[in-house]
Amino acid sequence: MASQALNTKTNKSAFIDACALADVDAAAARHRGLEVNVEGVSLSLYRARDGALTCIETACPHAGHRLCDGYAADPGDIEDLLPGTGVLATCPAHSYVYDTKTGACLASFGAGAGRCVVRATRIDGDRVLVSAEASPETRPLALPKERSNAIGMRCVELALDEKFGGE
């Protein structure tokens, strides 16, 4: 899915006020992303336990479902499988798992996973600012299928534990 353009009158290097940091933290406490609309573009903001803040365009590249409605796994929850990621956004419809730091699909159970559009973020006091333009794409990860499957299953297990209670 192509990146949506923000208002053409916007300075391309500008950061735009998106929301209160407390709202992102409240969503993170529920293992979700916070959906915001910035100049007509739907964005999802995520915050990791270590305080790292990431932003992706909301629509899942695979089929357009709202990634903010799916489980958001903290990077620490999968560090043994793949260190250095952002929050992992799991699509609520098809369980595709996207790294909110790079936009890469880390786990998919079918074809056409695509890549999320990532936007840079800043924190200014108690406000979250997002870049007016998409971040450049990073080199795609080449994960072995068994590692990709393990990441996907871990994210699904975490979501199920949250919904139905773990052991």
Describe this structure in words.
- With about 170 residues, the protein is α+β, with helices and mostly antiparallel strands.
- It has a single domain, classed as Rieske Iron-sulfur Protein (3-layer Sandwich).
- Helices cover about 15% and strands about 30% of the residues.
- It is built from 2 helices and 10 strands, in the order βαβββββββββα.
- A 6-stranded antiparallel sheet has the order 1-10-9-4-3-2, with helices on one face. It has a 4-stranded antiparallel sheet with strand order 5-6-7-8.
- The longest helix has 20 residues.
- The chain starts with 14 loop residues before the first strand and ends with a helix.
CATH architecture: 3-layer Sandwich
Span of the ends, CA to CA: 39 Å
Number of DSSP helical runs: 2
The helix content is 10-25%
Compressed to H and E, one letter per element, the order equals EHEEEEEEEEEH
- Bulk shape: globular
Identify the notable features of this structure and list them briefly.
167 residues, 2 helices, Rieske Iron-sulfur Protein, 17% helix, disordered N terminus, 4-stranded antiparallel β-sheet, 6-stranded antiparallel β-sheet, globular, alpha+beta
What's this, in brief?
By secondary structure, the protein is α+β, with helices and mostly antiparallel strands. The protein has helices at 21-29, 145-164, and strands at residues 15-20, 34-38, 41-47, 53-57, 72-73, 88-90, 97-99, 105-107, 118-124, 127-134. 17% of the residues lie in helices and 29% in strands.
